[in-house]
Amino acid sequence: MNILHIDSSPFTAGSVSRELSAMIVAELCARHPETTVTYRDLGVTPPPHLSAAAMSLLHNAQEEVITPQLQAELDGIYQSIEELTACDVMVIGAPMYNHAIPGNLKAWIDQVCQKGKTFRYTPQGVVGLIPGKTAYIASARGGVYSTPETLPHDFQEPYLASILELMGVKDCHIIRAEGVSRQAIGREKGLAEGREMLLQILNA
Ligand SMILES: Cc1cc2nc3c(=O)[nH]c(=O)nc-3n(C[C@H](O)[C@H](O)[C@H](O)COP(=O)(O)O)c2cc1C
Predict the structure, then answer these.
(1) Whose CA is nearest to atom 4 of ligand 1?
(2) What is the block-wise mean pLDDT of the chain (204 residues), using blocks of 10 residues?
(3) Report field, pTM of the whole predicted structure over 0.85
(4) Which of 76, 116, 164, 166 is the most core-located residue (most Cβ within 10 A)?
């Protein structure tokens, strides 16, 4: 089994999503000893936002002068797509930022979510081109968004599940540590609940 392990919190110390994603990867590796892990740290090394030149080349195949800078951007995009297509399982550390995801994770999604490479349009609608994979989202939130009142404000987990489904990844599991900034819950209880969610999913 090949795991693509992604973290996107800019905080390397004390990050809840990093601890949760590492917990998921460790548990998967313990259950599948033959596993190989490719690690991408989007928090420490954020991918660049797509440039107009790269988008022209990727989306419309328009001719562009390939400068060394554009070539480096394209190489990064192709590497991200290659890592994604090569994995069987992805584990994505995803903090909630302003009801959504951090910009560095969005920049990675903009890199890998490419027409003709990871999805395509057909007369019947969008078809994902990387099916058969499993995703685990290590979701960390300061507040609580899983109640009926707060759910409409959650553009983090539903967005990630939606964009993965667009690429054909339908087997998507949310492992959540929420309320980590709340006194009533806090970091350790949030993480313990995340671990409980993980074990329930893996033992099902
Ligand atoms: C810029 C920023 C925006 C945030 N926005 C939200 C938010 O909208 N809702 C929420 O519940 N927590 C929010 N938080 C809190 C984080 O989701 C929480 O601290 C989480 O643990 C971050 O993940 P990390 O510990 O892996 O860095 C925000 C934190 C930051 C730094």
Answers:
(1) 97
(2) 98 97 98 97 98 90 85 97 98 98 98 96 96 98 96 98 98 98 96 98 96
(3) yes
(4) 164
